Amino acid sequence: MPEQELTPIDLPFAPARLDGRQGTNRALGAHRQIAADTDLEAARAWLAEYAGSPHTLRAYRKEVVRLMLWAAQALDKPLSSLTREDLLVYEAFLAHPAGDWVDPTRPRTGGDRRLFEGPLSPTSIRHALGILSGLFAYLTAAGYLAGNPLALRRRKGRKAQGPRPGQERYLDQALWGRLLAFIDTLPTGTIRERQHHERVRWLFRLLYGTGLRASEVAQARTGDLVQRRGRWWLRVTGKGGVTGEVPVSDGLLADLGRYRRFTGHPEALGAADADMPLVLSVVGATGRSLTPSAIYLIVKEVMRRAAGAIEAEDPTGAAILRRASTHWLRHTAATHQADAGTDLRFIQKNLRHASLDTTSIYLHAEDDERHRKTTERPDKV
Predict the structure, then answer these.
(1) How many Å from the N-terminal Cα to the C-terminal Cα in the chain?
(2) Secondary element (H or E) of residue 45
(3) In this model, does residue 60 exceed pLDDT 90?
(4) Given pLDDT bands bounded at 50, 70 and 90, which one contains residue 59?
């Protein structure tokens, strides 16, 4: 990933004396594994480890920016002087950010941007502190910090959990069909409406037909489609740089052909447009793709509108759609494949899971049969 994408961790409000060179938690005299002299350089070194995972990089960078700006503004401290007590205060702040931190009039980007939409949930706070603990652990192992103040954090016991994450985050066949039917009703009266209609129609079918993550769809290019022995595959590089190939059905190719025709490109795939994104940006520029955030927002908005459309006749389905997001379509694809009897090993390869245990959460057909056998009324004698 280009260096410029790793360096917008600038602190315009922090004076030079807070650059961390004199941080009280610096491992002075230690043999360092990184060349960083300041906290900003050290944070960039850590983030560079995730350059191959854009989605992870964005999430981690956000948490580092939040903490460093808060430390400078609230405590007049650099990152490398933070103590366990300071981070307890920060944890409380995450639950109740106020003032400029959540000011809706401030821009979403730039040095003067707001960094919070509102209070973080307990789950989001745990996630943020987990990321920051990883940062501190890295800098400690690198000989930059003397210790990790978050290593002292008490691990609160978790309540007994229900289904494993992802197990119920899918749309059944009926609700998936209703969602597609709703998409077909999106307005097409203007050029912009037709562009939106075709983009949404293709985006949902691509997410479902391949089981890709939003970040993977954003990176997908026409040249990633390859044909072998008369069958089409989509090359994918996912989380952690793991690569794989996902089968592409004839139906999905037909949907791609329709989208390409609408955007003014030949239906047949060729080397000339190998760098063309599979999903074009909102303005339809050939060289620009949707960002993962834009994909997420489009899917959420369509789900919300679809929920409103079916609310009266299917309030349960509407409630499910309001919770659904891009990742639900990945779970939906895997669940439908499993219900259809697809070998679990094949689904594992399609999703690029490291463990078959992870893929097994999509097996619902056996539970359906157990429920049917348990609840059906026996014939009267």
Answers:
(1) 72
(2) helix 39-48
(3) no
(4) confident
**Distance between CA atoms of residues 359 and 349, nearest Å:** 9
- The predicted model scores a pTM of 0.55
User: Cα(332)–Cα(344) distance, rounded to whole angstroms?
Assistant: 15
d(CA 37, CA 292): 33
Asked whether the beta carbons of 125 and 33 are under 8 A apart, the reply is no
Burial of 125 (0-12, 13-18, 19+ CB in 10 A): middle
Q: Is the pLDDT of residue 242 over 80?
A: no
Q: Read off φ and ψ for residue 36, nearest 5 degrees.
A: -65, 140
Amino acid at 38: T
Burial group, residue 83, by CB count within 10 angstroms (0-12, 13-18, 19+): middle
Q: Are 49 and 38 in contact (CB under 8 A)?
A: no
Q: Could you tell me the pLDDT band of residue 14, with boundaries at 50, 70 and 90? A: low
| Rounded Cα distance, 246 and 350, in Å | 5
**With contact defined as beta carbons under 8 Å apart, do 119 and 95 qualify?**
yes
What's the pLDDT score for residue 163? 44
Mean pLDDT, the chain, integer: 81
Q: Within 13 Å and on the Cβ side, how many CA atoms surround 96?
A: 3
Q: For residue 1, what pLDDT band results from cuts at 50, 70 and 90?
A: very low
DSSP 3-state of 339: helix
Closest CA to 246 of 265, 225, 262, 264: 225
Q: What is d(CA 217, CA 210) in angstroms, rounded to the nearest whole number?
A: 9
